[in-house]
């Protein structure tokens, strides 16, 4: 699937995405006992992503702690999408501020 994951490359001058070390976030089975299984009807893909502007990336502190970009609920059924999060530390004018971005997509 990674070899076909190039949609955002057209926007590389404007946006940035951290390396995805997690499996595709869609389409997971919605059956409780199959939380790690993909639905067979669609090709697994990284539909849930966090994209940053380059100006935001420039204030991320990577010397203290590397950003963590991952999914939540890998072993739990949370619908056909696995939520994606990004945890990082940013530089402020007078110090550091640590926070996490959580991207949830709700499909009904």
From TrEMBL:
Its EC number is 3.1.3.56. Pfam families: Exo_endo_phos2. The keyword Hydrolase applies. One of its GO terms (biological process) is phosphatidylinositol dephosphorylation. Residues 10-86 form the Inositol polyphosphate-related phosphatase domain. Coiled coil: none annotated. GO terms for molecular function: inositol-polyphosphate 5-phosphatase activity. The keyword Hydrolase applies. Keywords: Hydrolase. It comes from the Eukaryota. InterPro entries: Endo/exonu/phosph_ase_sf, INPP5A, IPPc. Belongs to the inositol 1,4,5-trisphosphate 5-phosphatase type I family. PANTHER family: INOSITOL POLYPHOSPHATE-5-PHOSPHATASE A, TYPE I INOSITOL-1,4,5-TRISPHOSPHATE 5-PHOSPHATASE. This is inositol-polyphosphate 5-phosphatase.
